[in-house]
Amino acid sequence: MGELERFPGYLRLVVxxxxxxxxxxxxxxxxxxxxxxxGTPSQAGEGRREEVQDLGFVEGYARYLEERGKKEEALxxxxxxxxxxxxGEALTA
Length: 93
What we know:
Elements: H1 2-6, E1 11-16, H2 21-30, E2 34-40, H3 48-53, H4 57-67, H5 73-92
Parallel strand pairs: 1-2
Helix pairs in contact: 4-5
């Protein structure tokens, strides 16, 4: 980080993976000459975007919960119910 702080020009920082908004904000505060912070897909996640786009909302949410070790059938059922209500309201509006 010290080398970046001493860099005489403007910076565009490219990092592997995604950064949280808090980390990005901290970088902008620490490096006043930083113009942009960009994330690139990590090697393990390449091609995954196409897989996720093929999923429906319920399947995508189920995968999200499973990846975080929080898959609960009751939560997934409630999500499906709320989604059905929202879709029903959208058709009548």
